[in-house]
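Recall the central idea of this unit: under ordinary conditions, the amino acid sequence of a chain determines the structure it adopts. In this exercise we apply that idea directly, starting from the sequence alone.
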Amino acid sequence: MASGVTSTIRAVSALGTPPFQTLDPFLFCVYHKDQYPPGNTRMEAPRVGNGADFDPSAPYRMYHGDRIPGFPQHPHRGFETITATMEGVIDHTDSMGNGGRYGDGDLQWMTAGGGVVHGEMFPLVNQTSDNPTRFFQIWLNLPAKNKMCEPSFKMHWAQQVNKVTRDDGSSLTLFAGEYKGLNGEAPPPNSWAADPSNEVSIYHITLPPNSKIKIPSTATEGVNRTLYMIEGTEGVIDGVSFKSKVYAVIDPSKALTLSNPPTSSSSTEFLVLSGVSISEPVAQRGPFVMNTQSEIMQAFRDYQSTQFGGWPWPEDAMVFEKEKGRFAFFDGVESTPDDVEGKRREGISKAGEL
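Accordingly, the structure predicted from this sequence is:
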């Protein structure tokens, strides 16, 4: 696909299977899309997991779950997980005693910092209809000075996640960062994204046929910008048409126009990741990301000796009761989407504007 390279598109390739390629300050990106069937009374799937079920040809995956899909307790250190949802629900539990159920447009931002154990399970809460799940999980690196910070997480409920909608039906969901004066919710305090000058942005863009949207340029040095075409039969990037899913490295100093032609048979969706590079050495092994190999070995020793505080939940693959609804329990305080004041602030552009 070298012919797709333009003054704006620095490099382009087939998207491939996740995890997708990323650039500093991002470490990891996965687009989860599963068509889970109706669950039973225990929110279980009819298929039993095998401990490593990542078959991309299957209608859904059990991942590391057994009866309920998901990722039972596992450790992290030295980075952040950003889980941006579109459909379905996720049950979160961690070694700090925090937990919650979120989804359907919510975003959870967790700083692993010096070490946390957490679980992410996908209970099949609907018994009479399918349980489709769509979400991104993105790993954002932490600079050396914050790698051993106190773990934390923030829940951004769907009505707090801002969205720009244009008259042609195109939309941009602002999971993080800024877009034309509209700001995302604040990340945790030790995040690389907490400093606006680092310009960390996460955009989810949906383009119905005959629509377009523009991503402004930036003059800030050191910004990396990548783009992922995750859905659709055709997408136009910087005037170049692609009829298969692609990954592209974008020149952030140039404005970028994304469109879906009127002849397209379906909506096209993109994920855009941008941010100033941290520009520090990266040493990674499994769930730990530090700056040196000796720090990685220390992370393993620390986890073996402390379990990062231990696991306070009765099950490794912990889920909450079906009737619980969406909630977050953090630092002894429980909240729900109903506790959020106001509604989503949407930016509606005028006809003809990008």
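The first strand starts at residue 9 and ends at 14.
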